[in-house]
Amino acid sequence: MRDFDYIRPASIPDAIAAAAEPGSAYLAGGTNLLDLMKGGVTSPQRIVDISRLPELNRIERLEDGGLRIGALVRNADLAHDAAFAKAYPMVAEALLSGASAQLRNAATVGGNLLQRTRCSYFYDTASACNKRVSGAGCAALGGENRLHAVLGWSDACIATHPSDFCVPLVALDAVVEIEGKQGRRHVTLAEFHLLPGETPQRENALEPGDLIVAVRLPAEAASFAANARYLKVRERTSYAFALVSAAAALVVDGGKIRAARLALGGVAAKPWRARAAEAMLLGADANEATFASAADAALADASPSGDNAFKIELARRIVVRALTSAQAGTPERLPALPASPFSNIPGARHDA
Amino acid sequence: MTLELGLNQQPAHLRQGSSIGQPLTRRDGFLKVTGAARYAADNHPPGMLYAVLAVSSIARGRVASLDIEAAKAHKGVVEVMTPRNRPALAMDPDAKDHPFMFRLDLLQNDEVRYPNQSIAVVIAETLEAATEGAVLLSPRYEELPARVGLDDAESFVPRGVGVGNPAVQHKGDVEAGLKSARTRIEATYETPAQYHNAMEPHAIVAAWDGDRLSIDTPSQGLAMAQGRIAGLFGIAPQNIHIRSPFLGGGFGSKGMISGPQVLGVLAARLVGRPVKLVLRREQMYGPVGHRAPTRQTLRMGMDGQGRLTAIDHHAKTASSTFDDFFEPAADASHTLYASPAIATSHEAVRLDTGTPLFMRAPGEATGSIALESAIDEAAHACGMDPLEFRLRNYAEVEPMTGKPFSSKALRECYSQAAKAFGWASRPLQPRLMRDADGFLTGWGVGTATFPALMFQAEARAVLRADGSGLMETGAQDMGQGAWTAFAQIAADGLGLDIDQVDFRAGSSDLPNAGIAGGSGHTATAGMAIHNAGAAVVAKLADLATENKASPLFGAGNEGVVARGGRLYRRDDENRSESYAEILTRAGLTEVEGRGKGAPDPASQETYAKHAHGAVFAEVKVDPDFGQIRVTRMVGAFAAGRVINPRLVRSQYYGGMIWGVSFALHEEAVTDRRSGRIQNANLAEYHVPVNADVPSVEALLVHEDDPHINALGIKGVGEIGVTGTAGAVANAVWHATGVRPRRFPIRIEDLLA
To answer: Which residues of B touch A139 (CB under 8 A)?
Structure first.
């Protein structure tokens, strides 16, 4: 093991000062960072352990009707917060469809946003990876890439962002609250993650030392509670990343769509907000034809980055199903197999 | 030591009547769930150092340089072992004296033959220092192009496949059979490379004392490991003591001692201190064996009644560039279905991988999924129900040899499992069943089979003057329940309550129990135990029946029976004497007997010996997404006498879940350019999670086999994989109308 400094700051300003030094990394749940360090994928010289910082593990209802989720709230605690799950059911469903129960108990809100891609070439230090070593090349191009991006990729990088949680969050206009050397600022989640372009090593809007302190949901996000769904297709029922996932939320009145939110997961280097599809849905009749058109719009710019053309058609179908499920109404209880197409099979347990 | 703490002192093992046949819980279960069971890597002798492998990141070439100075300069690093300073061995690791001696990578040179091959060992005061030392070696290579896929090298016909079977076999005229057929099918199926992924990684703690060697390491074959290490180091086998009380799974990957384990021994030799070496998960993808990929083509012909006229089963597979193990996939067609003409053939290529080896149902698993899929295709081509088709082609004698079966209750398996499953209401055509939620529903069947093998084993039994007994054999418990099942056989063999029996196993200083493999351990070591018990009871009987003071005097050794710690006169149950009384009178503290277990050559010649089973599976498939979920499985198995129904069911469950894994999940994804495995971890190398197997039922079908061995035991460890994988694949076809031809079945294969 490589030696590194371990610092446990007592306050947020102390943390930011410590992490502003080059070669620093924040440690919260550690579910991704420790694996990356063990694999030699990243080698921070300084670990700033924020896991015991006070006040970052609170869920607060704001006066304007919004919600503020502290960056250190554990994924499991957030998903099992009854009021949260009631107001933002597709976010709870996404959280519970991610990773395993053990990981959800450790992983944090801020860490979820910052988790690294699961591209195997990123983890394989003998392979070329522009994310790991800028300018090294991309071994995933022409490699084993059936799981890779179909939207927003570049020749420099075809990796995807693996988060489930971020998909409904970006659909609901979540905002990332960041504290840095220049004080506190807000960045929308849609703008937080960056597409690879020529600089895939830059994955988000954070500057050195910047600390995510909270994620905010605006008041409007709760207005979709009655018609919202997260769906995730994968190759085993639990503990697997999405091939493709979708978060869909509607406000329907008299058969007309009064508001629509749609985002895709597993398709790009960021949680993919499908704004063109939303525009098409707005004001249209809530029916299968509309949903199919929306799906086409959502995938209009998609192209395979390798052996993954099937993901485009799969994504279309998931969009249609997610919108159809949202229209049908949020399930009264969180499904036993969260986000699974098989969520209604009797006997299934939600802690699987 | 932990072993003595608990294995024979579990109060929960109350029973009625004899021990064999009782559903005892695992005697080691308490130790395992409390963490008290000591696995190899839990050992920490005084002065121990940690060794970490540096492994190759290329598939083929040579190591051009290692920065040994940088590694040695790291704090805590004691030594770096490379080809330059590796202690001498008494034999070349590339020597192959017999087909089961597999070549090992023991730093004999700088050549790289596969990714994850050991290229150096770093030994340090801490695991962390050794790990970082291995990174600091920063190897540089001279790299050659990797040969990765089944089409990347010239193919050839291997001299033998599996355990030395001929690569090409036939009976009858397959071409004539196909020509005369009313209906024919031909299909090609592909199966990927798979890795054992036992929960416990290969681990070793080795300590030298002069030319004596003490080892803690998981082993499915203690005596073989002892012999192999003795040969490599030029020391007497009895100078090597291997302890292997518990294995965290083996599945064949711990059958033979692997290169990394021997490197642990070499490291301890080099530094003159005890050394621990534990493989990292990703390091298990190379030097400890795997299941080779296959591409299998089946051709079948059927007459107007749906009877097979010919089966032609061809398999292409791969071995490493430097050793010979050839997955005998096509041999699956030798035993299951009657046909006047059967041909099986194999070809192979050599790839830049570690040597493939035995992996749970080697040949049977790969061959079964192809054969059972093809049989299903043949049934459909004949317009027949797949179960009816299998019964129409039921083999009354072993098809390839014409030998009678020593026993075969497969018809009972079919009927019991079909009934429990509800098969009768299955529509013949695919894509006709939908459930209330709109999911495509399909039902499939597969036939399971595995040979009933026996090897060689010995056991030592002791009866003591205090009325207790001791049974010793170097048997191996991989988690399958050997501690419990063998203790049950020992108790009955000694005529004692199980709590009166001290059962010892898992150590190389005990009698050679052979290998825990080939599903033959219970039969082989069980017979040794049974015979040792009989031998010691016979000695005791002689002491009693030849002594005038005994109430058994004059009964003759055949005239007494042993039960509950007493000998009874067969003709008069009122006349009996306890073991303690007999030994005390004779002035003995104990009496000893020995027994062997081995196949009977005469019955081997006469009979075909196999366990059989039938597996029925239900799958649901999302019609839009192609996501598959196995919702129900029912298997029925006939495998001779059941020693412990709880453990046997558990073996069947495990095998059936493995079958689901084969059909839907497992695949080593290899980069086609570098040859490196891209998913060498348990997050990305998928095996089923609990949510993937909601309902599994295993029925035990009664089967008396008078020919197999005195106890009537076949084997249960591997058969569950076979049949199941095909049943799942066939259910997917029945649900969707899409015939899976490559495994695991992928979503894109089902997206219409």
So the answer is: 671, 674
